[in-house]
Amino acid sequence: MSFVVGLTGGIGSGKTTVADFFAELGAAVVDTDVIAHELTGPRGAAIPQIVESFGPAVLRSDGSLDRTVMRQRCFSDPDARKRLESILHPMIRRESAERCERADHAPYVVLVVPLLIESGAYRERIDRLLVVDCDEAQQISRVMARSGLTEREVREIMATQISRAERLAAADDVVTNGASRDALQAQVIVLHRRYLELARAN
Fold first, then answer.
1. Which residues pair with 122 in a beta bridge?
2. Which helix (H) or strand (E) element contains residue 51?
3. Element (H, E) at 112
4. What is the pTM (predicted TM-score) of this model?
5. Tell me: the pLDDT tens digits for 28-58?
6. What is the spatial distance between Cα 168 and Cα 170, in angstroms, rounded to a whole number?
7. What pLDDT, on the 0 to 100 scale, is given for residue 1?
């Protein structure tokens, strides 16, 4: 069984950048966001159930989920979000578990789960919880820059996630993403060495 580090953080905190640094150092990365995009892409495994539940209006012309339409629907109707999660979450959990199992070629696995703490279900599958932290103003500006969302829309997404304080209280390890990429990478290198030792001891 692989040693698994659960990686989480608020939207725009820099989870993908941190995961990429770990991958460069030789860790296997299993990203639940990537799996979700695969499941909801053209001919994705979740598409038939999504269409059955929400109708074809939530699809783009290529057959993938229209994430903007779906996000608007979920914000205006909490029941819609629950229905979508009931379709996607079991599939994501199953696929991520299989990928973690198959990653025995690497010294350890980094399992990226944006809502890891909120879900509760992943905590039993990880050996260590790593939180990527930054202040809320940085989160908002990063998400606005990359996605074109308004500040209000970003704050609405953040409101569905637990608070920064709760996230930090749950963490075994923290990397702070408030300065340069080099500073962030240096923190990851220190943690990589620690995880190698823990994985060997495991």
1. none
2. helix 47-54
3. strand 109-112
4. 0.89
5. 999 999 999 999 999 999 999 999 999 999 9
6. 5
7. 65
In the predicted model, what is the mean pLDDT of the chain?
Answer: 91
Question: Per-residue confidence at 159, pLDDT binned at 50, 70, 90?
Answer: confident
Neighbours of 135 (CB within 10 A): 12
The type of residue at 17 is T
Q: Which long-range contacts (CB under 8 A, 24 or more apart) does 83-90 make?
A: 83/53, 83/54, 84/50, 84/53, 84/54, 87/46, 87/49, 87/50, 87/53, 88/36, 88/39, 88/40, 88/46, 89/119, 89/121
Side-chain half-sphere exposure of 104, counting CA atoms within 13 A? 4
For residue 143, the surrounding DSSP H or E stretch is helix 136-147
The CA distance from 69 to 75, in Å, is: 10
d(CA 140, CA 41): 26
Burial call 70-97: b when 16+ CB within 10 Å, e when fewer? bbebbeeeeebbebbeebbeebbbebbe
